[in-house]
Amino acid sequence: YRTTFHLSSQPDFSGGGTATVRVDQQVVDPVDSTGAPVWHYDAASNAIVFGPLHVPSPGTSVTVTHPTACP
Q1: Left if phi > 0, otherwise alpha if psi is -120 to 50, otherwise beta: which for 35?
Q2: Which end of the chain is less crowded, N or C, counting CB atoms within 10 A of the terminal residue's CB?
């Protein structure tokens, strides 16, 4: 199963923006109802990384939107 999803552009979170992660068009919060991490942004690899208990199933669609710096 794939746990890491690399982004096609570098996010700009300097203005307080955040990433929005959707799995099969449903927004997925970065933590679950117990406070356990579901996913996080890894700046070193410029990717969204899912925790082992929250990995999307094969064949599902994962979409990430985030703020980017103005050119």
Answers
A1: left
A2: C
